[in-house]
UniProtKB/TrEMBL annotation:
Domain Protein kinase: 159-421
Sample GO molecular function, one term: rhodopsin kinase activity
Gene Ontology terms: biological process: heart development; positive regulation of Wnt signaling pathway; regulation of heart contraction; signal transduction
PANTHER family: G PROTEIN-COUPLED RECEPTOR KINASE, G PROTEIN-COUPLED RECEPTOR KINASE/RIBOSOMAL PROTEIN S6 KINASE
Gene: grk5
Organism per entry: Sander lucioperca (Pike-perch)
Active site feature: 284
Superkingdom of the organism of origin: Eukaryota
Alphabetically ordered keywords of this record: ATP-binding, Kinase, Nucleotide-binding, Phosphoprotein, Serine/threonine-protein kinase, Transferase
Protein name: G protein-coupled receptor kinase
Length: 512
C-alpha cells in the first residue's frame, strides 16, 4: 500500500474511533446556538403537532416526551410499559406486542395515562397534545432555545472531509464528519457540470427526494442535502463495512458463508418490503449497492434509479445494470415490483456461488449475449447451494414475473416465509435485535486504496445558468429533520445541551 493511502486510511480510522464527543469541534456549543424561541414562532404553524408526530416520529420529541413522563409520578406507567415492551419484544416477539405498541402510540394512550387529571383530558380533547406538552417541545436553555430543527445553513464548512470512498456516475463519495456533533457520514457529490452535460437533473432530484422521504434501518438515510460552488452533495449514513461486491470478491475465496448469505438476504428483503410499501421500485439491486455498517448490518444504497409508482401502475424503461436486469426489463415490457425480486435472486445467487448468475468467472459477455442468456438459459447451481438456497434462487429467478416468488398478492411476506429463511426471526430483525454473523474490523478500511479509485474527470465547456440555479435550490434543502435529530441524540449532544426540568433546571435524578 502506498504511503498516501496509509495516511488517508489512518486519518479516517482515527476519526471513526473518536466519533461522537471526541470528534466534535471545540466550538460545538456555539455551532448549536439557535434562534430564540420567539423567532421560531412560525414553526408552530408549520410542524405537525399531533401526538404521533411530536412524541413518536420525531426522535427528539420522543426523548423529551419520555423525560417529561419520567419527571411525573402519574406518568410512570407509560415509561414502565415502554420499557416492558422493549424487553418483551426481545424475549417473546409476537403479534401481540406490535398491537400493544401501536395502541400505545395512539392518542388514546395519553388520555389513559392522564386518567387522574381530568382537566388534562379535557384540554387534550380540545387540542390533542400541544396544550399539555407545548413547553417541552423545545430544549429549555435560558435565552437560546434550541428548536426541533435548526436553521443554520449547511455548507462545505459544516463538515470535515476524510478519504475518498468510491466513485459514482456523477461524482465521488467521500468520508466526512459533522463538526458540531462529531458524527461520521458519507458525502455523495454530484458534479454540477457532469449533471448538466448528461441531463441528470431529474435523476439527482429524484434520488434526493426519495431518500428524504424514507426512514428505514435497511436503506441509507439522507441527513443533509446542500450545494457547493461545483457540486450538489447528499450526506448519507456512513457505511464503514464496504459494499457486498468487495466482501464477495475481494476477501478470501469468492462467495460468502451460508449464515451471512441468509442474514444479508433477509435484511435486503426487509428493505425491499419497506420501499415497496412506499410504492418505490428500486431497480438497481447488485452487490455494489448493498453496503455494510460497522456492526455488520446492511443497507440498500444508491437510489438513483428508483421510481415511485402511482397506484397500481407499471413503468417501462431499460433501466438497471447489465447482468442484473430482469427478463421483463430486457424485453422492454411494462413492469412493477417484480424486477426487485428478480434482483434479490441474483444477489442470493452471487453471494452463494461467488460469481454472478449467467456468467462464468472472468467473462464479460456483451449486452445482446447477456440478454439472450437471461431470457432463455437454464441456470446452473453448483454444490455450494443447499436445497433451500437453490429453491429460493430458482423461484426468484423465474423468468415469468407472474409466477415469480414475491409477485403474488402477499408480496414480500411470501419471500420471508420461504424455507430458506426458516432460521430468521423477521420481527427481531426489523427491530434491529439480531446480531450480524460478521462484524467488520474497526481497524480496517473496506474499500479500494485511494490511488486505485480512478480520478473523476472534469468536463469543460459547460456553462451553468439561471435554470440550473432554480434546480439547485430545489435540491439544496439542508437538514433532514429525523436524521438530524437522531444524530444529535446519538452523539450525546442532546444530553449535554438539554437542560430539561422544572423551570429550565436540569433535574439530577433523570435516568438517561
Ligand atoms: P452511483 O449512483 O454513481 O453509482 P453510489 O451511490 O453507488 O454512486 O456510490 C458510489 C460508491 O461510493 C459505492 O459503490 C460505494 O463504494 C461508495 N459509497 C456510496 N455510498 C456510501 C456510503 N453511504 N458509505 C460508504 N461508502 C459509500
Ligand atoms: Mg452505484
Ligand atoms: Mg446511482
Amino acid at each position: 500500500m502506498e504511503i498516501e493511502s496509509m495516511v488517508a486510511n489512518s486519518a479516517l480510522i482515527k476519526a471513526r474511533e473518536g466519533g461522537g464527543s471526541k470528534g466534535r469541534s471545540w466550538k460545538w456549543r456555539e455551532m448549536f446556538r439557535f434562534s430564540h424561541i420567539s423567532q421560531c414562532a412560525d414553526l408552530a404553524e408549520t410542524i405537525e403537532r399531533d401526538y404521533y408526530s411530536l412524541c413518536v416520529k420525531q426522535p427528539i420529541g420522543k426523548k423529551l416526551f419520555q423525560l417529561f413522563c419520567r419527571s411525573r409520578p402519574d406518568l410512570q406507567n407509560y415509561i414502565s410499559l415502554q420499557d416492558a415492551l422493549v424487553l418483551l419484544l426481545k424475549k417473546l416477539p409476537s403479534p401481540v406486542t406490535v398491537v400493544t405498541s401501536m395502541f400505545f402510540q395512539s392518542i388514546q394512550c395519553v388520555s389513559i395515562m392522564l386518567k387522574h387529571e381530568d382537566s388534562c383530558i379535557q384540554r387534550l380533547e380540545l387540542d390533542p397534545c400541544l396544550d399539555v406538552f407545548h413547553e417541552y417541545v423545545f430544549f429549555k436553555n435560558e435565552n437560546n432555545n434550541l428548536s426541533f430543527s435548526s436553521r443554520q445553513p449547511i455548507t462545505k464548512q459544516t463538515f470535515r472531509q476524510y478519504r475518498l470512498l468510491g466513485k459514482g456516475g456523477f461524482g465521488e463519495v467521500w468520508a466526512c464528519q459533522m463538526r458540531a456533533t462529531g458524527m461520521m457520514y458519507a458525502c455523495k457529490k454530484l458534479e454540477k457540470t457532469h449533471v448538466k452535460k448528461r441531463k441528470g437533473e431529474a435523476m439527482a432530484l429524484n434520488e434526493k427526494e426519495i431518500l428524504e422521504g424514507l426512514d428505514s434501518r435497511f436503506v441509507v438515510n439522507l441527513a443533509y442535502a446542500y450545494e457547493t460552488k461545483h457540486a450538489l452533495c447528499m450526506v448519507l449514513t456512513m457505511m464503514s463495512g464496504g459494499d457486498l461486491r468487495f466482501h464477495i470478491h475481494n476477501i478470501g475465496e469468492p462467495g460468502l458463508d451460508k449464515d451471512r448469505v441468509r442474514f444479508y438476504a433477509a435484511e435486503i428483503c426487509c428493505g425491499l418490503i419497506h420501499l415497496h410499501q412506499k410504492s418505490i421500485l428500486y431497480r438497481d439491486l447488485k452487490p455494489e449497492n448493498i453496503l455494510l455498517d460497522d456492526n455488520g448490518h446492511i443497507r440498500i444504497s444508491d437510489l438513483g434509479l428508483a421510481v415511485r409508482l402511482s397506484e397500481g401502475k407499471l413503468v417501462r424503461g431499460m433501466v438497471g445494470t447489465l447482468g442484473y436486469m430482469a427478463p421483463e426489463v430486457i424485453g422492454r415490457k411494462h413492469y412493477g415490483m417484480s424486477v426487485d425480486w428478480w434482483g434479490l435472486g441474483c444477489l442470493i445467487y452471487e453471494m452463494t456461488a461467488g460469481q454472478p448468475p449467467y456468467r462464468v468467472k472472468g467473462e464479460h459477455p456483451k449486452a445482446p449475449e447477456m440478454e439472450r442468456r437471461i431470457q432463455t438459459e437454464q441456470l446452473e447451481y453448483s454444490d455450494k447451494f443447499s436445497k433451500s438456497a437453490k429453491d429460493i434462487c430458482s423461484s426468484l429467478l423465474n423468468t415469468d414475473p407472474k409466477q415469480r416468488l414475491g409477485c403474488q398478492s402477499s408480496g414480500g411476506s411470501e419471500v420471508q416465509a420461504h424455507r430458506f429463511f426458516r432460521k430468521i426471526n423477521f420481527r427481531m430483525l426489523e427491530a434491529g435485535l439480531v446480531k450480524p454473523p460478521f462484524k467488520p474490523d474497526p481497524r480496517l478500511v473496506y474499500c479500494s486504496d485511494v490511488q486505485d479509485i480512478d480520478e473523476f474527470s472534469s468536463v469543460k465547456g459547460v456553462i451553468l445558468d439561471k435554470t440550473d440555479i432554480n434546480f439547485y435550490s430545489k435540491f439544496n434543502t439542508g437538514r433532514v429533520p429525523i436524521t438530524w435529530q437522531n444524530e444529535v441524540i446519538e452523539t450525546g449532544c442532546f444530553k449535554e445541551l438539554n437542560t430539561f426540568g422544572p423551570e429550565g433546571s436540569r433535574s439530577p435524578d433523570l435516568d438517561w
